[in-house]
Design a protein that fits this description.
The protein is an all-beta fold and 267 residues long. It has strands at 3-8, 20-27, 39-40, 45-53, 62-73, 81-91, 99-106, 114-124, 129-139, 145-146, 150-152, 162-164, 168-172, 175-176, 188-195, 207-211, 223-224, 229-232, 237-247, 252-263. The protein has two domains: 3-139, Sandwich (Immunoglobulin-like); 145-263, Immunoglobulin-like, CATH 2.60.40.
Length: 267
Amino acid sequence: MWTAVALTTVMTLAPAQGIELKNARSTYGIMGETRKDDKLLPGDIFVVHFDIEGLKVKDNGTVLYSMGMELTKKGKKKPEFKRDSQDLEGELSLGGTTLPSYAMTTIGTDSDPGEYTFKITIKDRLGKTEKVLEKTFEVLQPKLGFIQVHLSAPSRDAVPPIAVVGQRIYVHSPLVGFKLGKDKLPHVSFEMTILDDAGKPTVAKAFKGDIKTDLKATPTPGVMDFIPRALELNKLGKYKIVIKAKCNISNESVEQTLNLTVLGKAD
């Protein structure tokens, strides 16, 4: 099953000519860093960020635009889903010429592997012009891997990989593709290590866990959603969060790294 959401943030003052869609890139979650590639596992979320340039702006800084979306699988004529344009409104607070925006689609755990094209149509409702952005990605065959990896605040709202000293953030890293043993239970070993900019662990002993539990009560079948790991940010610097998982039944392992920059508090 496929679902889609369109949300935007705004920061611009734009000229009156036709709009352009620039700097398209996919990210790990809404606030995360740019993905290393556009190959995703079933159950993940595909997020596309892009900049809208050239929207016509009212005297009070308001822009009126719309966004429509369509997802198609290579080799199929009928879209996996299609959503007609939704009217949106933005308040441009900081000036400039760019309107950052994004759209996303959730990849169902039952989605077929293959190549998909995510089509996003943006229309300037004041300037009467529109542009289309197409972003292609691949859904892989099911295998052991992390999905929907992101950082969040205690409120559970997503946060970017930039924080300040004294802040607490959480690491979310659901796992898919693990096998079940003869007892119909998974057996997964999990590990998280924080590395400093010299590549050295920040603490002598990494966080580890050994999981062998009944997953019948989990919200999404086939997804192991670990309790988010809290990180207390007590020191300036650039870090790498390395998360690993091993399925002790199939003997497969997977690893993923997230970057994190910790800054000082403003005076």
